[in-house]
Amino acid sequence: MIHKKHLLRDLAEVDAQLLQSEKMAAIGQLAAGVAHEINNPIGYVFSNLKALAGYVDDLVKIIDATETVSSLEELKSLIETLEYSYIRDDVQALISESEEGIGRVKTIITALKDFSHIDEEDFRPSDLHRGLDSTLNLVSNELKYKAEVIKAYGDLPEIECLPSQLNQVALNLLTNAAHAIEERGVITLSTGCEAGMAWFEVHDTGRGIKAEHIDRLFEPFFSTKAVGEGTGLGLSLSSSIVQKHGGHIEVESEEGRGTRFRVWLPIIQPH
Ligand SMILES: Nc1ncnc2c1ncn2[C@@H]1O[C@H](COP(=O)(O)OP(=O)(O)OP(=O)(O)O)[C@@H](O)[C@H]1O
Ligand SMILES: [Mg+2]
């Protein structure tokens, strides 16, 4: 009997350790991802700044020369030696490339901030439909060109949750759905509840997900979108929010036909 107790306690400890090491692994993965994603834009913005500094030197030389040269010809020849016309074009290119790079870093940082704010809200009973409606309002502009949105809400009690974080989950699923639709399609937002769990679901008639991608969807920074179009943090953030609720996300997808993400949430949180 005592033996068994020990064993159970040891098992619980191993379990806790495993959970901890899984968390550490997730944080490590996230940090490595951030470093990788930010490294490239930071790299070229840095080298652009160096090049710009050189150009500014040359431009200052030209401007200073306007005070000292004895003839316009002399000035013109200086301008030519310093390749002013090349500088002129390249300066603009370097600046817009750098702006894009810094914009990309900013997007990543903003998405990361969402991760770090995850702990700031308290669980409270809330009307999921209201949250979904306000999220729909927020993205209706983005959705209306891509899809007809159909609402199929079931009967739901209030559920104990972090409402603004669930809105974020819905927001990401809805934008993903819109992005998956090439020309025009249908996005269906439905809800329901079963055996103490409530669910909401975003279904789209978009391009679907390749079988080999299904297992990677929730990895931080996994994205099939072009650089600058997606950070690949949406689903990973969504899944940590849902896990925090003690829920889970189901995915079903068929290439070329569409995708269904269903978020399951306990109606009551254990106290
Ligand atoms: N409804 C969907 N249909 C097809 N593919 C999807 C759908 N939802 C997600 N995906 C795939 O999963 C990937 C990861 O999604 P996720 O939301 O995490 O990142 P993202 O949308 O690429 O970028 P972000 O959300 O950070 O802007 C997407 O790039 C896409 O390939
Ligand atoms: Mg997304």
Describe this structure in words.
The protein is an alpha+beta fold and 271 residues long. The protein has 2 domains: 107 residues; 145 residues, Histidine kinase-like ATPase, C-terminal domain (Heat Shock Protein 90), CATH 3.30.565. 58% of the residues lie in helices and 17% in strands. The protein has 6 helices and 7 strands. The strands form 2 sheets. Strands 2-4-5-7-6 form a 5-stranded mixed beta sheet. The chain has a two-stranded antiparallel sheet with strand order 1-3. Helix 1 runs antiparallel to helix 3, helix 4 packs parallel to helix 5 and helix 5 packs antiparallel against helix 6. Magnesium ion binds next to helix 5.
Instruction: Using the coordinates above, name the CATH class of the largest domain.
Output: Alpha Beta
Under CATH, the topology of the largest domain is which? Answer: Heat Shock Protein 90
Mean pLDDT comes to 89
By CATH's scheme, which homologous superfamily of the largest domain applies?
Histidine kinase-like ATPase, C-terminal domain
Say how many strands there are.
7
Major pleated sheet: 5 strands, mixed
Number of helices: 6
How many domain units?
Answer: 2
What percentage of the residues does DSSP assign to strands (E)? 15-25%
Radius of gyration: 27 Å
Structural class: alpha+beta
Task: List cofactors, ions and other ligands.
Answer: adenosine-5'-triphosphate, magnesium ion
Q: Outline the low-pLDDT stretches.
A: none
Helix content: 55-70%
SSE string, helix = H, strand = E? HHHEHEEHEEHEE
Distance between the termini: 30 Å
State the strand order across the main sheet: 2-4-5-7-6
